[in-house]
């Protein structure tokens, strides 16, 4: 399948259209009939949300696309997004038994085929449950929050989502590059949740537009699903120069629908080598930058980006500079970035988290002339809100009971990136969705147990 | 959600999907698992006098890498004691009172033996009986199964014997190993059957091993014909159902069997006159869980069409099935090749050139690019090109306007004979 379209400098908008082509009806039919329909299939176990994959594929084969979409979305409320962004070769497709005989089923693409059908046919897949009189506030309308809200609404809870941004969807709406995940897909998932009578208050930041105190008072339960915040400072000189970007904000801007021409013909560097760094780099290429480099203080071995993302960036012509750390961003007299001073690194012994710690090589400083510097070295935490809610946390990672997702305050649950700490594997959309579901079920269990006790 | 429940000659079930009498319905354990999975009914594996089975019983045809396009077996009726089966039927019915349990029966053609079996089986509370006049292997050599089913008089007589004592509805299961199935279907009606089911399996030999020269399957180097079923037999079964459904003297419900693998197949059988369907091979290939998609797919299909009950679709296509003599000779379709979709494999060209009507030309456009074009004036609308075409939407068969008013062969012949008579008259 052709993956990368030619980058066009004349038509930048085109560069941001979805790169992966949808399966044709015939491809979907052939591929779905190739699925073995395994019993107790390993792909189901490999899916963090436990989608009954053989069943949804069988339903594509039989022409029951509505049933197929329901099977997917009932297990994963953001299943249309996950069809596009999941690292499938590390999850379902990696577990497919056909890896041992022929080649694995294209599960992600089939999932997209079925959910695309539901989107195109404007189907409402689920009904709200019978109101049970309980209310839940969900702080944050990203994958975890939406997932929790969807399940609670189906169970009859009155759910209000508080979303700081203009639209709900979180990472899916703003954080994942549109050539992987068009916003329309995320909006459809938000809409599916809203149709279950979930109130979504956008442009509403908890702690600012609505007080934490009111939230605690007005709702029976709270789910904290605020994810993470902006990219932290590099802590070097020149970060406030014009031409220095926060990768999250940078990607968000490319999803606004207004594609800037500012990058055409420019040279950009991205600091960091995670998936967000790749996004920053490939977006730069698609904005017309003539040269894009990723600077990483460790090596290819330690980089956290998925293999397919790394491959994708290379195909986009992104250059990688390993063992390279920024020392100083250099500006001109107008306060604009003109270069970045870097230093060569070498790796020492493995760190506490198992990665080898990099050390600077003295005297190896050199300058790369650039017009833009994009910072992608992780994300900060919503510490202020966590403090206001008086929750126990470890450097901004909210501590929860690993089974129930209950925080140190029994009225408050937390899920998604806000509870995601080091050493917890990948922070995936699909994991956030599953945690949202589990938090919702825990709340339901808590209330059901309480009402039985009465 | 549409009502999926059916009533087949008084046998009610929550949905039209029954497991056919076969290995999947061999025991209470299996049938109860099936009901838990959602099957609406089960026809218990045939009860009768004790038999012995052989080892190596099944074989299947793979077609171009797809497994189980067709399936064959040389297994006989139940090899478990009647008492055990009856006890399990009783327990299963007690646990699942709303699901249909039909006992399949086979007996040598003796009135008193049939009477005894029917009474014993009905005593445990089955919802109906299905007389196995179809099984083509093994039992047929002993005068039972299809050996009975191929003789209309025997079908009628044995049905009559059963009806003398039966209190529950009696379904007669017919063999396809006969020239005209409506003859035995009519015999069943005359014997008083409440319903007929079809088809049982077709005589088959699945293959011969090229190295050992043994049959497939073989039992210690020897083989015997088996009964063929699975997706490959569906068109044969569908025709037989349709022929019975449109037959003037066959006016009892039909339970459709033969290669039904999903809800779409079931809809086709019901449109062609089946009140419900029976399934075996698909369950043997994938397990009982396939019924979930069957139920859901059928339900969504009906909802999508605004149909409230599945019963409303029964027989809706029967009137569209007729004799060749009633087809319109002046109706015309031609092939149209969509060059933008076509991938230029030339399969349509060679199929037409060698084996049909030589009307697909290989041409080259002004840029030197090859393309295929149908000479519509020579196209007879046979469909062959669109059948061999590997790409969806590359060849459409489109209707062309009538040049002459509609006329069937039968109408033509009667018009001709009328004209001949007039001629004779004018000579008088």
> What percentage of amino acids of chain A are in beta strands?
15-25%
Q: Kindly give the count of domains of chain B.
A: 2
- Name the CATH superfamily assignment of the largest domain in chain A: FAD/NAD(P)-binding domain
Main interface by residue count: A-B, 15 and 17 residues
Global outline of chain A: globular
Uncertain residue ranges of chain B: none
Structural class of chain A: alpha/beta
Describe the structure.
The complex is a heterodimer of chains A (454) and B (428). The N and C termini of chain A lie far apart (60 Å). Chain A is built from 17 helices and 16 strands. In chain A, strands 3-2-1-4-16 form a five-stranded parallel β-sheet, with helices on both faces. In chain A, strands 5-13-6-7-8 form a five-stranded parallel β-sheet. In chain A, strand 14 and strand 15 (397-398) form a beta hairpin. Chain A is 35% helix and 17% strand. Chain A has three domains: 19-120, Alpha-helical ferredoxin (Fumarate Reductase Iron-sulfur Protein, Chain B, domain 2), CATH 1.10.1060; 135-229 and 380-453, FAD/NAD(P)-binding domain (3-Layer(bba) Sandwich), CATH 3.50.50.60; 252-375, FAD/NAD(P)-binding domain (3-Layer(bba) Sandwich). Chain B has 428 residues and is α/β, with parallel strands linked by helices. Chain B folds into two domains: 6-320, TIM Barrel; 328-400, Alpha-Beta Plaits, CATH 3.30.70.20. Helix content of chain B is 33%, strand content 21%. Chain B has 13 helices and 20 strands. In chain B, the strands form six sheets. Chain B has an eight-stranded parallel beta barrel, surrounded by eight helices. In chain B, strands 5-6-14-11 form a four-stranded antiparallel β-sheet, with no helix packed on it. Chain B starts with 5 loop residues before the first strand and ends with a helix. The mean pLDDT of chain B is 96. The chains are: A alpha/beta (454), B alpha/beta (428). The interface between A and B is medium-sized, with 15 and 17 residues.
């Amino acid at each position: 399948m052709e993956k990368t379209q030619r980058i066009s400098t004349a038509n930048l908008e085109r560069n941001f259209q979805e790169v992966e082509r949808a399966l044709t009806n015939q491809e979907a039919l052939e591929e779905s009939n190739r699925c073995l329909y395994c019993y107790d299939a390993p792909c189901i176990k490999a899916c963090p949300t436990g989608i009954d994959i053989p069943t949804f594929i069988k339903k594509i084969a039989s022409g029951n696309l509505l049933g197929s979409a329901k099977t997917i979305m009932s297990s994963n409320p953001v299943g249309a997004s996950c069809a596009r962004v999941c690292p499938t070769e590390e999850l379902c497709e990696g577990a497919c038994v056909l890896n041992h005989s022929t080649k694995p089923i294209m599960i992600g693409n089939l999932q997209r085929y079925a959910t695309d059908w539901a989107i195109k046919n404007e189907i409402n897949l689920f009904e709200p449950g019978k109101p049970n009189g309980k209310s839940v506030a969900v702080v944050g309308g990203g994958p975890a929050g939406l997932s929790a809200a969807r399940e609670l609404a189906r169970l009859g809870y009155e759910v209000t989502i508080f979303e700081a941004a203009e639209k709900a969807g979180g990472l899916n709406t703003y954080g994942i590059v549109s050539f992987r995940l068009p916003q329309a897909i995320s909006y459809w998932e938000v809409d599916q949740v809203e149709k279950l009578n979930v109130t979504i208050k956008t442009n509403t930041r908890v702690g600012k537009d609505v007080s934490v105190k009111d939230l605690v008072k007005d709702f029976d339960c709270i789910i904290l699903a605020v994810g993470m915040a902006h990219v932290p400072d590099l802590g070097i000189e020149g970060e406030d120069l014009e031409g220095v970007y926060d990768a999250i904000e940078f990607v968000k801007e490319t999803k606004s629908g207004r594609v800037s021409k500012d990058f055409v013909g420019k040279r950009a560097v991205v600091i960091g080598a995670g998936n967000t760094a790749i996004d920053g780099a490939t977006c730069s290429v698609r904005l017309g930058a003539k040269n894009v480099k990723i600077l990483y203080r460790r090596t290819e071995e330690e980089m956290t980006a998925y293999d397919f993302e790394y491959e994708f960036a290379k195909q986009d012509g992104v250059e990688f500079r390993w063992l390279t750390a920024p020392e100083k961003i250099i500006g001109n007299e107008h306060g604009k970035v003109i270069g970045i001073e870097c230093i060569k690194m070498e790796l020492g012994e493995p760190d506490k988290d198992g990665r080898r710690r990099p050390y600077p090589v003295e005297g190896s400083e050199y300058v790369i002339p650039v017009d833009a510097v994009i910072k992608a070295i992780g994300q900060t935490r919503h510490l202020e809100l966590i403090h206001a809610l008086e929750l126990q946390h470890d450097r901004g990672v909210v501590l929860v009971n690993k089974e129930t997702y209950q925080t140190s305050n029994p009225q408050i649950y937390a899920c998604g990136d806000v509870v995601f700490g080091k050493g917890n594997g990948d922070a995936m959309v699909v994991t956030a969705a599953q945690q949202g579901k589990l938090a919702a079920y825990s709340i339901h269990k808590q209330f059901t147990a309480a009402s039985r006790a009465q | 959600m549409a009502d999926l429940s059916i009533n087949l000659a008084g046998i009610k079930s929550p949905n039209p999907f029954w497991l056919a009498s076969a290995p999947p319905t061999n025991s209470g354990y299996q049938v109860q698992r099936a009901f838990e999975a959602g099957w609406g009914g089960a026809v218990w594996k045939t009860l009768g006098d004790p038999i012995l089975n052989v080892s190596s019983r099944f074989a299947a045809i793979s077609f171009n890498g797809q497994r189980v396009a067709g399936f064959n077996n040389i297994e006989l009726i139940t090899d478990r004691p009647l008492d055990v089966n009856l006890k399990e039927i009783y327990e299963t019915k007690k646990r699942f009172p709303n699901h249909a349990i039909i006992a399949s029966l086979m007996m040598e053609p003796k009135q008193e033996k049939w009477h005894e079996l029917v009474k014993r089986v009905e005593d445990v509370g089955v919802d109906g009986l299905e007389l196995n006049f179809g099984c083509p292997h093994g039992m047929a050599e002993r005068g039972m199964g299809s050996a009975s089913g191929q003789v209309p008089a025997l079908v009628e007589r044995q049905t009559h014997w059963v009806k003398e004592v039966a209190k529950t509805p009696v379904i007669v299961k017919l063999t396809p190993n006969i020239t005209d199935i409506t003859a035995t279907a009519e015999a069943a009606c005359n014997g008083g059957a409440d319903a007929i089911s079809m088809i049982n399996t077709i005589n088959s030999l699945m293959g011969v091993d090229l190295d050992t020269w043994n049959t497939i399957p073989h039992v210690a180097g020897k083989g015997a014909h088996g009964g063929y079923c699975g997706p490959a037999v569906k068109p044969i079964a569908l025709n037989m159902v349709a022929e019975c459904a449109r037959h003037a003297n066959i006016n009892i419900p039909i339970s459709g069997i033969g290669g039904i693998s999903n809800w779409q197949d079931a809809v086709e059988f019901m449109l062609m006159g089946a009140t419900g369907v029976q399934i075996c091979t698909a369950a043997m290939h994938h397990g009982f869980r396939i019924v979930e998609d069957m139920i859901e797919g059928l339900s969504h299909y009906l909802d999508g069409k605004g149909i409230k009950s599945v019963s409303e679709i029964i027989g809706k296509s029967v009137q569209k099935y007729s004799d060749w003599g009633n087809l319109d000779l002046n109706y015309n379709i031609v092939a149209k090749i969509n060059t933008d979709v076509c991938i230029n494999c030339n399969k349509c060209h060679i199929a037409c050139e060698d084996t049909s009507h030589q009307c697909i030309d290989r041409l080259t456009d002004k840029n030197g690019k090859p393309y295929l074009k149908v000479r519509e004036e020579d196209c007879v609308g046979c469909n062959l090109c669109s059948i061999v075409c590997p790409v969806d939407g590359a060849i459409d068969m489109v209707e062309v306007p009538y040049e002459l008013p509609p006329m069937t062969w039968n109408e033509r012949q009667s018009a001709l004979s009328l004209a001949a008579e007039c001629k004779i008259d004018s000579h008088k």
